[in-house]
Amino acid sequence: MTVTHNLPPVKIGPITDHPFISHQLEMQGKPSKVKSLCEEAIKNGYYECTWLCYNRGTKYLAQGIPILSEIEGFEAHNLRRALGWWKRVSLRSPVKVKIVKMHFLEPKSIKEVEVMVLPDDSSSKIEGIRTWLKEYSMEAQCSAGYDENGTFHPCQSGSSCKNRVMGGNEEYPQFYCSLEYYHELRLRKRRLECRDAMLEFYWNSRGRSDFQTFLRESGLITSYSNLKTTHYLDAADRYGESIPALLLIDGWHIKRLLIMICFAVLISLVVTVLAAAVGQSIDTGLTAGSYTLALVAIFIATLSFFSAIL
Ligand SMILES: [Zn+2]
Prior knowledge:
Layout: E1 30-31, H1 35-43, E2 48-56, E3 59-67, H2 85-89, E4 92-107, E5 112-119, H3 122-135, E6 145-146, E7 152-153, E8 164-168, E9 173-177, H4 178-204, H5 211-217, E10 221-223, E11 229-230, H6 232-236, E12 243-252, H7 254-279, H8 282-309
Parallel strand pairs: 2-12
Antiparallel strand pairs: 1-11, 2-3, 2-10, 3-5, 4-5, 4-12, 6-7, 8-9
Helix pairs in contact: 3-4, 7-8
Bound molecules: zinc ion (ZN).
Zinc ion is lined by residues 142, 144, 155, 157, 161, 163, 177, 179.
């Protein structure tokens, strides 16, 4: 259970970077580019997912990794598996992961969508929140806040709270306690400040099962039903809304390559010795050994070539 669960749903206050709107608008709006993909996922019993982007040739593709429940064991390094067996044996495969934003361009299959990847700049968001927090002045002290155990206590005063303000829009006005919002923003700012470092930590460590909680707190888990439609300005933009996503960054595995070269040398040595022993001649041994080395070298070269282009 995280603190955010105690907070009211994200309000459309002065600062909000939440790209999704409430469920009451779910059925309205323009169909999004991933409508059929989302419907298929819902039909298969999935409710939420994390979007994973990766480079394929000159294009960026993305697929939704379904979140099955708060399962233990869903770890950052498991994301590599989404790319199939080739990326696991390839000499060039994901070495890093980054938080980005993406726009859907065109569905490629029932699982994959071509996307446009945009940088997700947390420093400008942090700056925006910092400005808001600095300018905030509360009317009166109310009960909203954290206790020494880090548990959040929502405002108890209800409609009589002096900090009550109106947010949302004219059609859907939302009243909320601004002190609650102040605390929510403070927490959001702290999470943004250590977000990238935390992601790197999860990527490099195995046995950390709270990765899913991190994804949720960072806004990286989105629901399929919210993605079926786009609304307002997002609907006017032909690329639709920006979705927070994880981007896998490829790199060369020099260590794997060195291990393979060591093996090649070892195998050819063994073959040389064996062939020399069997054939009772050092020449036979050397010939067999050099043929083996050549074959293994061709194999390594082929693997490197396909690793580079696929
Ligand atoms: Zn209050």
